[in-house]
Amino acid sequence: MAEAKSNKVNMKTLAKVLNVSIATISKALRDSHDIGEETKQRVIETAKLLHYVPNPYASSLRKRSSNTIAIIIPEIADSFFSQAINGIESIVGQEKYHALIYLTHDSYEREAQMFADLSSGRVDGVIMSVASNTKEIRHIQELQQAGVPIVFFDRVCEDIPTAKIKTDDFNSAYMATKHLLEQGCKNISLVTIEGYPSILQAREGGYKKALTEHQVKHKEQNIISCSNKYNQENIAFLKEHIDKIKPDGIIATVEHLATTTYLACEELKLNIPNDIKVVCFTNQITAAILNPPLTTVLQPAYDMGRKAAELLFGHLAGKPIQLEKENITLPSKLVVRDSTRAGD
Amino acid sequence: MAEAKSNKVNMKTLAKVLNVSIATISKALRDSHDIGEETKQRVIETAKLLHYVPNPYASSLRKRSSNTIAIIIPEIADSFFSQAINGIESIVGQEKYHALIYLTHDSYEREAQMFADLSSGRVDGVIMSVASNTKEIRHIQELQQAGVPIVFFDRVCEDIPTAKIKTDDFNSAYMATKHLLEQGCKNISLVTIEGYPSILQAREGGYKKALTEHQVKHKEQNIISCSNKYNQENIAFLKEHIDKIKPDGIIATVEHLATTTYLACEELKLNIPNDIKVVCFTNQITAAILNPPLTTVLQPAYDMGRKAAELLFGHLAGKPIQLEKENITLPSKLVVRDSTRAGD
DNA sequence: ACGGTTTAAGTAAACGTTTAAGCAAATAAA
DNA sequence: TTTATTTGCTTAAACGTTTACTTAAACCGT
Predict the structure, then answer these.
(1) Residues B157 and B305 grouped into a single domain
(2) Of A253, B30, B50, B286, which shows the fewest CB atoms inside 10 Å?
C-alpha cells in the first residue's frame, strides 16, 4: 500500500501528481459538474491514497464560513448541561460540523468577552444558555447583528429575537408545588439561585399560582436565593432558612441544590419526607437511589439540546426557518418518589 | 462614541483609516519593534474604536497554527469527565486558546474518524481519554507523527510515547478491596465494563492483590463486565450475577454502575451494607446522600484535566517539556460512607 | 562630508482553498 | 458548412493575515 508522504499533502500535491490544475482538484472533490466523471474518480482515488485532508482554515477563510459552532453554557459539571450537550452533539457530528465549547462560569464578563471574540467569524452559529448574572445584552445583540445566528436553550434571553428552546418551567413548578400541597404541605419554600430572571420568574410564577389555587398565602420570605455553587456556605445558609421558616416542603430549582437540601435536612435532623418534603429540578440518575429517593422535575435536556441544534443547522443549511419565530417549549416530567410521599 | 461599521473591519480597513500599510497594522498589533511607539498607539486605539477582531482563520492559515486544541472523550454525561473538562478549561481560557469537543461514545470508529480529520492541522494539540474498544492505535500514531502533540488522561494508551495523566487505579482498587475485606467481606465481585484494557488491568490487579494478601482465593466468575451504558439490561445482568454468585461485597468501577448496583440490590431485596457492601469509583456529589451513603473512590478529575492541559500548553509554548517522559499519577481518595459499614 | 548603523516604515509573497471568468475542443443545431 | 452550445479543464484573483525583504530617512562617528 502506498504510504502518505510525511510532508503535508495539499491540493497542489494532488494537482502535480495527477498533472491537472489545482482548480480541477478542488472542483472534483466538491463534485462539481465542471469535471468529467473519469477525472473525478482519479482525483478522489489519489486523494484517498495520499491521505489528503483539506485544510479547514484555508477553506474557512475563502468561504467565509467555518463549519464550526460555539456552545456557550454556564457550567458543565451538571447533568442537565452535559445531557444537553449530548443532544447538540448528536446533530453536530452528523452534520460534520465542529463544536467549540465555552464555559462562562456564570460570569457576565466572561460571556461578553467570548462574544467579542466570536465576532471574528470564528463560528457560523451559537447555541447558548445565558449566564445567571447577564443583564446587559449588548454583546449578544452585536453578534446577532453581525449575522451570526444564535439559538438559546433553557436559560434564554427573552429580549433577543431568535429561537428559544425552553422547558415548561412555569407549569412544572406549578405541578411540583401542587404535588407538595396535595401531599399535605402548608408552608413551602422555593430554593433558588441568584440571577436567571426568566427561568426564575417562570418557576416562581408556577409556584405562586399553585399556592393561590390552594388558598395558601404566599410569603416573600419563603423564597431563598443561594449562590450557584455547591458548597458549605450554601448548606449553612439553607439550614438557617429552614430553621427560621420551618417549611414543610421545599422546591429546589437547580440540580446541586438537591445535595445541599438533603445535607441541610440531615444536619437539622429533619426526616424527609415526614418532617419536610423535597422536590428538585434535576436530571441525575442517582435521584432514584437517594435516601429517600428524590421526587424530581426531569427536564428534557437531551431533546432540548438536540432541538436547538436542529434549528440552528436547519437555518445554516438555508432551510426556510425563521429563528425569531421559533419559541419551543418541551415538557418536563414530574417523577414522584419517596421524598414527597405523604407521612402517616 | 464612534460606532463600528456594520461591514467587517479588517486590517485593510484600519490601514486605510490610518493611512499606513497593512503590514504596519499587523506589526503594531503584535507589538513588533519595527513600529514606532506613537504609531502603535494610534493603531491600537483605532482597532479598539472600530471593534477590530482579527480573523482567526486567516491567521491560522498563515501561521500554520490554530490556537485551538481538541478534547476527545468517550462521553460527557459523567461527573468524572465533566469535572476534568473544567480542569482543562481553566487553562485553555487563561491561555486564550479554544477547545473543540469531540465525543467518541466509546466507539473506535468514531475516534479514528476524528483523528483523520485532525490531521488537517485543525488543532495544535489533543487532550484525550481513549474509547473503551480502541485496540488499534494507528490513528493515534499517525496524528502524533504528523507533529500534533497528544496528552492522555485517565484512559491512556500505554503504547503511545507521550504524556499520560493517570490516577492510581491499582492502588485505589487495592484500598477499596482491602477496605471491604476489613469490613468482613469474603466474596467480593468486581463489576466493570467491557474494554479499557489499561484501567481495567490496573483495577483488577489492585483488587487481586488485596484478595491475595488476605488469603482469599480469587475466582474469575467474580469479575463481571457490563456494557458501558446505564440501562435496564445492565441491571438485569447484574442481578443475575448477584443471584448466582451471592457476593457480599461489590466494587463498581465506573460511575453509572453505582445506580445500577443499588437498583439491582433493591430489586433483590438485599440490604446495603448488611447483606452486601458496595464501593464505587465515582465523583458524584450525591454519593453522600444516597440510601445508604455510598463509599466512593473519588478521582482527582479536575486536577487531572488541569495537569493534562498544563503539560500540553507548556509544550506548545515551547517550554522544555518532554511529553514522552511525563507519566503522572495523581492519587484517588477512598471516601468511606455507610454502604460499607460493618454490619452487626 | 561620508560611510555605517538604526529606526520606521512599505512591498509583496505566502498560507491552501474556492470560484468567477475564460478558452479550446467536441458536439449539436441550423 | 457554419454557428451555437456544451463539456472539461485552466487561469488567476480572492479570502485576511504574517513576515522576509526592501527602502528611505535620520542619526552618528570620524
Answers:
(1) yes
(2) B30
Q: Are strands A327-330 and A333-335 parallel, antiparallel or unpaired?
A: unpaired
Based on the domain organization, do B148 and B185 belong to the same domain?
A: no
- The answer to the question of residue A214 being in a domain is yes
For residue B111, the domain's CATH number is 3.40.50.2300
B76 and B223 in a single domain? The answer is: no
Counted domains in chain B:
3
For strand D, the positions having any atom within 7 A of a protein Cβ are 7-12, 14-21
User: Which residue in B245, B238, B244 sits closest to B266, CA to CA?
Assistant: B238
pLDDT digits (tens, 9 = 90+) for A116-139: 999 999 999 999 999 988 889 999
Evaluate whether residue A147 is within a structural domain.
Answer: yes
Q: What share of chain A is helix, strand, coil (3-state, %, to 5)?
A: 45, 15, 40
Q: Which ranges in chain A belong to alpha helices (H)? A: 11-18, 22-29, 37-49, 56-63, 79-94, 108-118, 138-145, 169-182, 197-213, 232-245, 257-267, 301-316
Residues A309 and A292 in one domain: no
Residue A97 CB contacts under 8 Å (≥ 6 apart), including other chains: A67, A68, A69, A124, A313
CB < 8 Å to B55, chain A: 61, 120-121
Are A198 and A274 members of one domain?
Answer: yes
Q: How far is CA A202 from CA A108, A198, B314, in A?
A: 22, 6, 46
Band the pLDDT of B343: cuts 50, 70, 90. low
Residue of B272, B289, B303 to mutate for A, most A C-beta atoms under 10 A = B289
Mutation site for B-interface testing, chosen from A71, A266, A285, A295 by largest number of B Cβ within 10 Å: A285
The whole-angstrom separation of Cα A180 and Cα A192 is 17
3-state secondary structure at position A53? coil
Domain that holds residue A17: 11-54
DSSP B13: H
Residue B2 lies in a domain: no
In this structure, is the dihedral angle defined by the CA atoms of residues B69, B73, B77 and B83, taken in order, positive or negative? negative
Question: Is residue B314, in this structure, part of any structural domain at all?
Answer: yes
Q: What does the pLDDT read at residue B133?
A: 84
Residues A184, A151: one domain?
no
pLDDT higher than threshold 80 for residue B5? no
Same-domain pairing of B295 and B149? no
